[in-house]
Amino acid sequence: MEIKRFDTAAELDIYAAQLFSDLLEHKPDAVLGLATGSTPVGIYEKMIEMHRSGKMTFRDAATFNLDEYVGLAPSHDQSYARFMKQHLFNDIDLPAGRAHLPDGMAHNLQAECLGYDRMLAANPIDMQLLGLGHNGHIGFNEPDNALQAGTHIVELKAATREANARFFDSLDQVPTRAITMGVGSILKAQNILLVVKGADKAEIVKQSLTGPITTECPASLLQTHARVIVLLDREAGRLL
To answer: Any catalytic annotation for residue 137?
Structure first.
């Protein structure tokens, strides 16, 4: 595990975007695992800047997102499909048919999970971008006494819904379920890029990276992966 700390979030964002740029330069048809939430927004902004300046192209790449809320249509302003269009896809040259997200509106959610796993098996992820939840969740894999390896439906913990309530008009509007890539699928990525920002994440960063490996802290399972790069701003890494 390689851990890098940055004085500012902007420096971190530039470094992360450059890692993706280097990957695509070396392997233009790379498969990118993407994430949502506030953490990657700055990274996506830098990727767009690099694309516009001619330093980065996505025309031969493919992407797979970690998760999506169950019950939100892609057009909903808080769906992750909408998020990805607003923060990345609308401003790069990634072909629309090569951007993949789980369908939270699927009539048969179990079939959707199995289908997503089949696509992941056929398109191994070269670099998976991850954020870190306050309770140690990655994707929407919540702390539990056991974790599912493949894509599955999860009941969101109260803490996770409360953390995401700032994006909705009220907590009641936050979906109670999500469809998420499983920890087993995440760990199959050739490279994993864990990005964490903010003083409020310092304790869970320490627990995830140096504490015991346990399903009660899903991110701790990243300690078992051979190629993890951790990018922290000064505050997130202050307890290491």
So the answer is: yes
